[in-house]
């Protein structure tokens, strides 16, 4: 019986694409390229700023131009993948991202750099949801899906840390321009694979019309939201344009929801997000990303500014987190996904990550890397890796194949908005705590060396306070996962569209 069961386990699911595992390699490569871009450019920014003569006031647009285009167009990109075909959208995104990366590497002035970054964001918004939705429609068996999403989750979680290492190495040993050029060979290889290997099921195409009002409202609303957080990070939360951006975003997104509830072929069918399990997953996922993006910022600043690490040394210092994420996503979560319900995988993973955050609150000027940073990173990596794999799989399971693109785009949107909130909110908290700490102690010091040390202590105190907030956010995400998510554990064949919220037949479109 044992040998028979083993043979059955190796039998491919009925109707499965025989080249799906080869396709996974190219899909994962494209995802790595997009995720790397979130941090690899940050490392090169000071050098690029000096080379191109970008002013201190305009420097933020190297990051903001990408964030606005990417975050604002994700839902549109996801729906385009559903309507136009995921393979075609995937290839278009790869070609465009490669061209934009080449332009960024060849930039001769700040306008050319800003334009290239915005163009990267536009094509990234096509590429990211197409990649995840291809996985959703190509892997429907529970065990295979767990392995595929494990690989994808590991790349999504660890890619940002890898970007720090790669960005540091390229900037230090070659030139900052290679942080852009490195995308080109990745994209070319993925394009070749996409053309020769990737095939999506014909029934997964959505034949409805594009919801233009929904596109305009969602895009403008998300752009305003991302811009508001970006501006708050550099200006002030009560500054006129910051407040105006948040107000405009709220009005646009509320109007978007009202429109989507009334049109026949909505950009974002509300059933995608009102499903209890998907909605809970998006919320828990977004909260966890808030904490992680803030942590990347503070730990990078601590290692480079306080401890004097070089960019390459900083990247190497993040490797334990990468290892933890790979183990969590590819070993722990896939082995448990058919044994435990998703709430226990996500909730427990986030609880372990929260413990890692708690460990890092002990940072001080002379903290030992081996005693504080290393174990904390391992816990964070293991917990977040498990959470990312389980969350990405659950967020796209049970959805109609024709909605896979927009459901995948919601995962990326939660990640992008979470990143914008995390960087702005936690950075504000850290700066305020640092200023208060310094103001309360500076009066009693007159020695220049003591003042310098006090300044460094205040910076580290600010990081520690912000990490306490990050701990609370991850702990809240864990509670949300345990309480909102109630999906059963994966069993056997899992076909897209079997979710409770999606069992109603698709409406017949009038012609």
From TrEMBL:
<keyword id="KW-0046">Antibiotic resistance</keyword>
<dbReference type="GO" id="GO:0022857">
    <property type="term" value="F:transmembrane transporter activity"/>
</dbReference>
<feature type="transmembrane region" description="Helical">
    <location>
        <begin position="460"/>
        <end position="485"/>
    </location>
</feature>
<dbReference type="InterPro" id="IPR011701">
    <property type="entry name" value="MFS"/>
</dbReference>
<feature type="transmembrane region" description="Helical">
    <location>
        <begin position="417"/>
        <end position="440"/>
    </location>
</feature>
<feature type="domain" description="Major facilitator superfamily (MFS) profile">
    <location>
        <begin position="23"/>
        <end position="490"/>
    </location>
</feature>
<feature type="transmembrane region" description="Helical">
    <location>
        <begin position="241"/>
        <end position="259"/>
    </location>
</feature>
<dbReference type="InterPro" id="IPR020846">
    <property type="entry name" value="MFS_dom"/>
</dbReference>
<feature type="transmembrane region" description="Helical">
    <location>
        <begin position="89"/>
        <end position="107"/>
    </location>
</feature>
<dbReference type="Pfam" id="PF07690">
    <property type="entry name" value="MFS_1"/>
</dbReference>
<feature type="transmembrane region" description="Helical">
    <location>
        <begin position="315"/>
        <end position="332"/>
    </location>
</feature>
<dbReference type="GO" id="GO:0046677">
    <property type="term" value="P:response to antibiotic"/>
</dbReference>
<dbReference type="InterPro" id="IPR004638">
    <property type="entry name" value="EmrB-like"/>
</dbReference>
<dbReference type="GO" id="GO:0005886">
    <property type="term" value="C:plasma membrane"/>
</dbReference>
<feature type="transmembrane region" description="Helical">
    <location>
        <begin position="146"/>
        <end position="166"/>
    </location>
</feature>
<protein>
    <submittedName>
        <fullName>MFS transporter</fullName>
    </submittedName>
</protein>
<keyword id="KW-0812">Transmembrane</keyword>
<feature type="transmembrane region" description="Helical">
    <location>
        <begin position="210"/>
        <end position="229"/>
    </location>
</feature>
<feature type="transmembrane region" description="Helical">
    <location>
        <begin position="60"/>
        <end position="77"/>
    </location>
</feature>
<keyword id="KW-1003">Cell membrane</keyword>
<feature type="transmembrane region" description="Helical">
    <location>
        <begin position="178"/>
        <end position="198"/>
    </location>
</feature>
<feature type="transmembrane region" description="Helical">
    <location>
        <begin position="119"/>
        <end position="139"/>
    </location>
</feature>
<dbReference type="InterPro" id="IPR036259">
    <property type="entry name" value="MFS_trans_sf"/>
</dbReference>
<feature type="transmembrane region" description="Helical">
    <location>
        <begin position="369"/>
        <end position="390"/>
    </location>
</feature>
<feature type="transmembrane region" description="Helical">
    <location>
        <begin position="344"/>
        <end position="363"/>
    </location>
</feature>
<feature type="transmembrane region" description="Helical">
    <location>
        <begin position="23"/>
        <end position="45"/>
    </location>
</feature>
<keyword id="KW-0813">Transport</keyword>
<feature type="transmembrane region" description="Helical">
    <location>
        <begin position="280"/>
        <end position="303"/>
    </location>
</feature>
<keyword id="KW-0472">Membrane</keyword>
<keyword id="KW-1133">Transmembrane helix</keyword>
């Amino acid at each position: 019986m044992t040998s028979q069961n083993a043979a059955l386990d190796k039998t491919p699911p009925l109707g499965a694409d025989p080249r799906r595992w080869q396709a996974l390699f190219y899909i994962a490569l494209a995802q790595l390229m997009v995720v790397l871009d979130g941090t690899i450019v940050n490392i090169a920014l000071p050098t690029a700023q000096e080379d191109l003569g970008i002013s201190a006031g305009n420097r933020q647009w190297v990051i903001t131009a990408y964030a606005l285009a990417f975050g604002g167009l994700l839902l549109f990109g996801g729906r385009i993948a559903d309507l136009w075909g995921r393979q075609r959208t995937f290839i278009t995104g790869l070609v465009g991202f490669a061209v934009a990366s080449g332009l960024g590497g060849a930039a001769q002035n700040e306008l050319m750099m800003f334009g290239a970054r915005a163009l990267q964001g536009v094509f990234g918004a096509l590429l990211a949801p197409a990649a995840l939705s291809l996985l959703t429609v190509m892997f429907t068996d529970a065990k295979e899906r767990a392995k595929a999403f494990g690989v994808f989750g590991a790349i999504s979680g660890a890619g940002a840390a890898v970007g720090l290492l790669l960005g540091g190495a390229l900037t230090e040993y070659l030139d900052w321009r290679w942080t852009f050029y490195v995308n080109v060979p990745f994209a070319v290889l993925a394009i070749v694979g996409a053309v020769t290997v990737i095939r999506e099921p014909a029934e997964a195409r959505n034949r409805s019309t594009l919801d233009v009002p929904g596109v305009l409202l969602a895009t403008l609303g998300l752009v305003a939201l991302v811009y508001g957080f970006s501006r708050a990070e550099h200006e002030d939360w009560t500054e006129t344009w910051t407040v105006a951006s948040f107000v405009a975003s709220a009005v646009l997104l509320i109007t978007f929801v009202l429109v989507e509830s009334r049109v026949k072929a909505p950009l974002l069918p509300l059933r995608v997000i009102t499903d209890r399990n998907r909605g809970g997953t998006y919320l828990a996922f977004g909260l966890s990303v808030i904490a992680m993006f803030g942590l990347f910022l503070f730990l990078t600043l601590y290692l480079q500014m306080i401890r004097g690490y070089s960019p390459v040394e900083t990247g190497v210092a993040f490797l334990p987190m990468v290892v933890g994420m790979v183990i969590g996503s590819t070993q722990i979560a896939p082995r448990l996904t058919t044994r435990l319900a998703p709430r226990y995988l996500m909730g427990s993973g986030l609880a372990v990550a929260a413990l890692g955050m708690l460990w890092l609150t002990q940072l001080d000027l002379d903290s030992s890397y081996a005693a504080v940073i290393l174990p904390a990173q391992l816990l964070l990596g293991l917990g977040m890796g498990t959470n990312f794999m389980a969350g990405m799989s659950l967020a796209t399971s049970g959805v109609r194949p024709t909605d896979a693109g927009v459901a995948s785009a919601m995962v990326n949107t939660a990640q992008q908005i979470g990143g914008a909130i995390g960087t702005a909110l936690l950075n504000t908290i850290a700066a305020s705590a640092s200023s208060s700490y310094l103001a309360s102690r500076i009066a009693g010091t007159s020695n220049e060396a003591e003042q310098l040390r006090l300044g460094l202590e205040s910076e580290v105190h600010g990081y520690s306070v912000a990490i306490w907030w990050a701990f609370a956010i991850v702990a809240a995400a864990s509670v949300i996962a345990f309480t909102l998510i109630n999906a059963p554990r994966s069993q056997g064949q899992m076909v897209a569209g079997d979710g409770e919220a999606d069992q109603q037949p698709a409406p017949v479109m009038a012609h």
